Amino acid sequence: MKIGEFSKKSGCSIQTIRYYEREGLLLNPNRSEGNFRLYDSKALKQLEFVKHCRSLDISLNDIKRLIELKNKPEESCSSVNALIDQQLALVNKRMKELRALKAELQQMASACGSNNTIEACGIIKSLDS
Amino acid sequence: MKIGEFSKKSGCSIQTIRYYEREGLLLNPNRSEGNFRLYDSKALKQLEFVKHCRSLDISLNDIKRLIELKNKPEESCSSVNALIDQQLALVNKRMKELRALKAELQQMASACGSNNTIEACGIIKSLDS
DNA sequence: CTTGACTCTATAGTTACTATAGGATTTATA
DNA sequence: TATAAATCCTATAGTAACTATAGAGTCAAG
């Protein structure tokens, strides 16, 4: 299939597919006579792997490492494990930050008093302190 | 004070300060004879306002809007309110995403089985599906 | 044989910074 | 006073993970 169909089947935009290829996340596909990219179901699986990783917020660089690891099936999976743990730590850190952030935003929202002038608005006051 | 001291007092890097100036988040400071930027305590307050907003993950564009609103003290603060609500919605959305993400990562981590080969690793398997 | 849909590469834009190069200026030391 | 070190200046490029555009080539249908 050509890139248009590949894009629809995978749910990735054409530009993103070409971008992933440039970044080495997808193998260079065969080309037609007219230099069009040609994909098969194996390529689709590759891309779906990448998409799944991205949906977990794993960076392109780490996905590249995972792909390399996948190609060494007999090695120990400890680095895979470490990568996931690290990703989990990142998520936990971000969640903690967001909780604090949410609390402050909520407090600000309630401090507004509503229907104030900007001068009297509790939000602006709290941002100014 | 010159930009070096201003940077230390505010906790913003020199480059970031110049960047904020270019983006219109800080007023253009007076200059010395030798063209060095000169700041006063008012400028410091401005920068602290920006920093506070940034710590709440408010975008530079929205901060610009807030600054404009601050300069119209007699207007209604409803847009300020809306902006904060919107920010809160963003945070909530992201938290929800992260919760789902965390759950999947945790499941993956436990699926590894540890000390496996990559071939047998539950993580890679789950990423492949 | 031409129109329209699709594809190609290369390049620039996005956000919020950070880092660098190559100068100019000021301050401290010899 | 000369010079070295510290600080400052502008302009430009790099970061992550895409998205968007320009300008050209390819292909199937009418």
UniProtKB/TrEMBL annotation, chains A, B:
The keyword Zinc does not apply. PROSITE patterns: HTH_MERR_1, HTH_MERR_2. Pfam families: MerR_1. The keyword DNA-binding applies. InterPro entries: CadR-PbrR, DNA-bd_dom_put_sf, MerR-type_HTH_dom, MerR_fam. CDD domains: HTH_CadR-PbrR. Keywords: DNA-binding. Residues 1-69 form the HTH merR-type domain. NCBIfam families: CadR-PbrR. PANTHER family: HTH-TYPE TRANSCRIPTIONAL REGULATOR ZNTR (PTHR30204:SF92), REDOX-CYCLING DRUG-SENSING TRANSCRIPTIONAL ACTIVATOR SOXR (PTHR30204). This is Cd(II)/Pb(II)-responsive transcriptional regulator. It comes from Colwellia asteriadis.
